[in-house]
Amino acid sequence: MSSADGALRAAAAVGPYFTWEPWPAGGPLPPVPDPAGGGWRPLTDLTDGEVVAERVDAAGQALVRMFGLAEDAVPPRVVASVTFLGLASRLLSPPLGALVLAGTLPTPGPDQLWWKPVAGGPWPFAYGTIAGVPGDGASLVATTVNDLVAPVLRTFQKRFVLSPQVLWGNVASALAGAAGVLADAHPDDPAASAGDGTTDRAAVNDRDAIGAIGVGDRDRIGLAGAADRDAIDRAGVAERAGDIVAQALSLPPLAGTGTLVRPDPERPRRFLVRHNCCLYYRIPGGGTCGDCVLTPEPARRRHWHSVLAARTT
Q1: What backbone phi and psi angles, to 5 degrees, belong to 100?
Q2: What is d(CA 270, CA 236) in angstroms, rounded to the nearest whole number?
Q3: pTM as predicted
């Protein structure tokens, strides 16, 4: 059992986007190729432009089916951006959850994580024996962001000629979205609802397609079982999550990607306002996300108010 196992179990209780699976019996991860035919691939495969293009093509086909669009209706660069957003969510949410809920930051190297391609929903990830250390926003950036996310980001950037500002904004959005889910799974008032399936709504409109291709729809991350997690200290989760993300966003390469806003100074819940856009609005019928720079301010504030109201009713 690795030193990070207990912290990752605490994170996994929040839902599938916060879950990395321990490799069965703590055994070694499979070699490449996987002779057992389990379909697992090393994280390092996602630094190969052809592999990334293959996954973006699969995501594009899912979007076309979901929206009933023509094959050429969704630009590949747009699909690549939102696919990367979901992948960033899968790489960031479990370590952030482990750090917020258990005070331990898992620190796997790129060669200690494996993923499995799936048709829809969050990609499964598995880990071997990995270390866990006390951490904060700075160490989250130094390890998870720089060691795991950045190499994949550079591959998406090069293969699809995407703006680094957009891609790093996606990383900020993934972090802030995960912090919001953690906060809403542990309301300020212990008697409050742990979530009704609409917490931290990622978009002003209904983004069914995002969940379909597994790119981080925070409506559908899942809060099942939150009421059973009495062992987790509910008090201060929103504060800790917000503090960690705020520190991370103050440091390169995330500095300047967005602003965290605390609409009610008496409440710890914070929300991101991105300084750019993930390009989701360019999908016909897509609309804008709740943290998008393009979302009208009145709509943004209505969203904040609805989330805050749900935490105390």
Answers
A1: -70, -45
A2: 13
A3: 0.85
Question: CB of 116 within 8 A of CB of 38?
Answer: yes
Return the percentage of the chain with pLDDT > 70, whole number.
78
| Residue whose token pair is 């598995």 | 126
Q: Which residues does 282 contact at the CB level (< 8 Å), separation at least 6? A: 74, 75, 78
**Cβ contact 301:309 at 8 Å:** no
For the chain, give the secondary structure using H, E and C. Answer: CCCCHHHHHHHHCCCHHHCCEECHHHCCCCCCCCCCCCCCEEHHHHHCHHHHHHHHHHHHHHHHHHHCCCCCCCCHHHHHHHHHHHHHHHHHHHHHHHHHHHCCEECCCHHHEEECCCCCCCCCEEECCCCEECCCHHHHHHHHHHHHHHHHHHHHHHHHCCCHHHHHHHHHHHHHHHHHHHHHHCCCCCCCCCCCCCCCCCECCCCHHHHHHCCCCHHHCCCCCHHHCCCCCCCCHHHHHHHHHHHHHCCCCCCCCEEEECCCCCCCCCEEEECCCCCHHHCCCCCCECCCCCCCHHHHHHHHHHHHHHCCC
The distance from CA 103 to its chain's CA centroid, rounded to whole angstroms, is 19
Are the C-beta atoms of residues 85 and 167 closer than 8 Å to each other? no
| pLDDT of 31 over the 80 cut | no
For residue 52, count CB atoms less than 10 angstroms from its CB and return exposed for 0-12, middle for 13-18, buried for 19 or more.
buried
